[in-house]
Structures are given as structure tokens and as C-alpha cells.
């Protein structure tokens, strides 16, 4: 009887130890989550279909502005780009004072849509011709999805936005 209790006790100890050895540590879980996010971002960038949503913006004439409560996005597709970004800065020729043009709202076919993978980030460059302006767009995306968008316009000073990219959301009609 004593031997049976000893054998059962030893088997239970091995069972518990095996269970603990198979659990993943927090560090392993973080690494797995990071790798999964990197794969998701790589898939979006390679497909050239994603959207950028800004958390804040920075222009040469204004301080950092929080955009978390202002709806904004720029949707990238291989054959179409649509922007609904706010603009804070100086306008030059071609803009009417007090007009209805309140931001960087444009859509069009991208020209020279290029994606380049660097050591620490992806670099996306393209240009779009709007109704009254030309826009040069540069997007730098880290492997985890955070991004910096810079838009250079003929009729406005350049502006940068800081945010994240994600999969495209369906537009509500």
C-alpha cells in the first residue's frame, strides 16, 4: 500500500511539472503576438490595400494636434486613393478664403505607387491629382503597424500625421 501511494504521488508530481513546462511565458506570448501583427502588416502592405487613420498631426505652423475625436482616414488601393484628412496650416494660391475646402479631401488614381521594405519599416510613395491640386504622399510604416504620413501639396504647406494602418473598412452608404 505504501508503494502504491508513493507511485501515485510521483505520477501526480510528473503530471503537474509537465503541465507547467508547456505553458508559455508572458514574454513568449508577447513575441508571438508581435510576429502575428508583423505578418498582418506585411500582408496589407504587399496587397497595397489598407487604410491609415491618424491619432495626431503636426504642421510647420501649428503645434501637435490630437485627432482622436476627429474622423479621418486615407484609403489606399492599387487603383484608387481616397483621403478625408483634416488640414491645419497655411494655404497658398488656388484656395478661396472661407470656402468649403476644409481639409485634404481628395480622391483619384495613384501614380507611381511604390512600396519599399527597409531595415526597420516599409516606405510607400505615390502621387494623386485632385480637382485643383497635386498631392505627393509618403507613408512610413513600422513592422508593428504604426505609421507616419506626409502629404505635400502644391497649394498648401506640407503636413505630417502620426497614426496606424489597418485593413480597409467598408464604406457606409
What is the helix fraction of residues, given as a range? 10-25%
Taking all Cα atoms into account, the compactness measure Rg is 25 Å
Biggest beta sheet attributes: 10 strands, antiparallel
Q: What percent of residues are in strands? A: 35-45%
Tertiary shape: elongated
The overall pLDDT, averaged over residues, is 83
Order of helices and strands: HHEEEEEEEEEE
Structural class: alpha+beta
Q: Mind telling me which CATH architecture this is?
A: Beta Barrel
State the name of the first-level CATH class: Mainly Beta
| Number of strand elements | 10
CATH fold group: Lipocalin
Span between termini: 76 Å
- Number of helical runs? 2
State the domain count.
1
Low-confidence stretches: none
Question: How would you briefly describe this protein structure?
Answer:
Helices cover 25% and strands 42% of the residues. It has 173 residues and is α+β, with helices and mostly antiparallel strands.
Task: Describe the protein's architecture and organization.
InterPro entries: DUF4251. This is DUF4251 domain-containing protein. Pfam families: DUF4251. It comes from Flavobacterium seoulense. The protein has 173 residues and is α+β, with helices and mostly antiparallel strands. The chain has a single domain (27-166), classed as Lipocalin (Beta Barrel), CATH 2.40.128. 25% of the residues lie in helices and 42% in strands. The chain contains 2 helices and 10 strands, in the order ααββββββββββ. Strands 1, 2, 3, 4, 5, 6, 7, 8, 9 and 10 form a 10-stranded antiparallel beta sheet that branches. The longest helix has 22 residues, at 26-47. The relative contact order is 0.18. The model has no long low-confidence stretch (mean pLDDT 83).
